[in-house]
Design a protein that fits this description.
This protein is of the alpha+beta class. The protein contains 2 helices and 5 strands.
């Protein structure tokens, strides 16, 4: 599974541009930046293992999980 976007990590501050966007999303549509931990838990529940997490332009991330042959 491959996802791209701005993520909020519990261990590091959100970049100022994404902090402002997060406030706007919460005010406008009651939605905010995705939290990495929630995505990681969902992936694990479905037999996926974190394979990579890479910084991308615009304070975004590429995060991907894989399912090994032992995970069904």
């Amino acid at each position: 599974m491959f996802v791209y976007g701005a993520y909020r990590y519990a261990t590091r501050p959100l970049e100022p541009s994404n902090e402002e966007f997060d406030r706007w999303l919460k005010a406008a549509i009651r939605f905010g930046r995705a939290r990495f931990r929630g995505s990681e838990c969902l992936a694990q529940q479905n037999g996926l293992t974190l394979a990579g997490d890479r910084a991308m332009p615009g304070n975004n991330r590429c995060i991907w999980w894989t399912k090994t042959s032992g995970n069904r």
